## 1
Amino acid sequence: MLVGGIFSMFDISASALRAERARMNVHANNLANINTTHDKNGLPNPYTRKRVFFKEGAPEITGSPNLGVMVAEVSEDHDTDYQYRYEPEHPDAIQEGKWQGYVKYPNVHVAVEMVDMMMASRAYEANLTSMDTAKRIHSGALRIIA
């Protein structure tokens, strides 16, 4: 693949589409786990919100380490506080100490996830528009040549 070749606009947008799709999937997963109060072993450890970080370059798509974008990391958000609700009858309620009777819920906030998902969706749409524009440019150039 030629860097800066005729298809580089498509490749750059394709890399961004892939990255934004991954970001939307992470936010959807966060929302799906908003009430998950225990881990896969059944212990009362709530789901921890995930975040997506991008980095410049998508060499497997664009052929260049400087063109495009890709997911650099999906990591747990340990900066946002968990939510506590007083539900003493809940099976995952804390049994002793200061938080007795409270259930520790995930650090996922619907408003934050929805805003982040809308931003990812808008970025996805912008890259689709970019690809469509590139297609029209190439089509016009081919008509001029032919």
## 2
Amino acid sequence: MQIIPAIDIIDGKCVRLSEGKFESRKDYGIDVVEMANRFAHAGAKFLHVVDIEGAKAGRIVNWFSIEGIGKIEGLRVQVGGGVRSEKDVERLLAIGVQRVVVGSLAIRSPEKLKGWAERFGSDKFCIAIDLKNGEIAFSGWQRTAPVRLDTVIPALLSSGFTSFLSTDVQRDGMMTGPNLDLYKDLVRTFPDARWLASGGVDSVDNLRLLKQTGVAGVIIGKAFYEGTLQYEECVRSVC
């Protein structure tokens, strides 16, 4: 199981939200490129980067920071947060981003997303299927829709997408443990998908239990920033 540090950006700095609420924002006062370098020096090979301002605006905003992270040698990156246009996808891939995280389009414009897959390759995308109160959350988690997973996910798989991310929004940034039942169900129901878990991780015991669910990786944010977990410790716990 892959350990993936998260970097959330507002105005070029590292922040964390709780349950996706913008009013819960906590600033860490750390430049995101500096933070990415810290993770790289700790041994991280892959980062999950979210442009929080972009998620709200519906377009990538923090290009300078993302480009800076992309220049770090030996570090692979997936980036999300408001990706709505083909132009943004093209630019992200051109600056070295390995995967573009897309959420809203998977729900609102699946045909458009399919067209992107045909142009850029489905392996260049990670589909975010985030849940809030049992419904799919999108548009920066500010909106929800009662969409059936057993309809959405098979259609995405048939279009060639295999990389998926799921966050339990109500646990994100809360450090109350991950929703293990959610990931067990996702892995069991959609075994052809490569699932990344996100939200709530605060201990190595969480990681061991997540590994048992069969997820391919776990994204960790707040626990790293608060010093509750260290990257090296997490890697050792699942080896």
## 3
Amino acid sequence: MNTLQKIFDWKTYIFTVLAVISFSSFIAVLFGQTIPGIILTFFKVAGEYVILGTVLIFAFTWFLRAKPHNRPKSYKIVPIDVFGKKSVIEEIRTEFKTHDVAWSFMKQYKKTYPLHNFALVSDLKNSDKPTIFRYI
């Protein structure tokens, strides 16, 4: 009975239970909190760098492609008849200082004179010919 009592000693049983519980809690903490926390932190930081890099690449390419706009100082509306020739309509205003006002007048002229087309043109500094901005 003494040897049987030695095999099932409560001290050994307690030590085994504590070892199993502490090892299993260690494994649970390792795979449940530590490793996922490290991986999530890595991917969060990596994602931030990918987004920041994408924004910087976009800004850099936009900066390289952006050209300073050479905006004209005045715009003209040129009426064009059905045969494609420049024509003159005495009742309309043709000289404008801003693009938006000229475009608005040109749309109104198209409604008033449906047999004519209209071109919004301006002289740029670098070109010899007038540049057509809009055509309706």
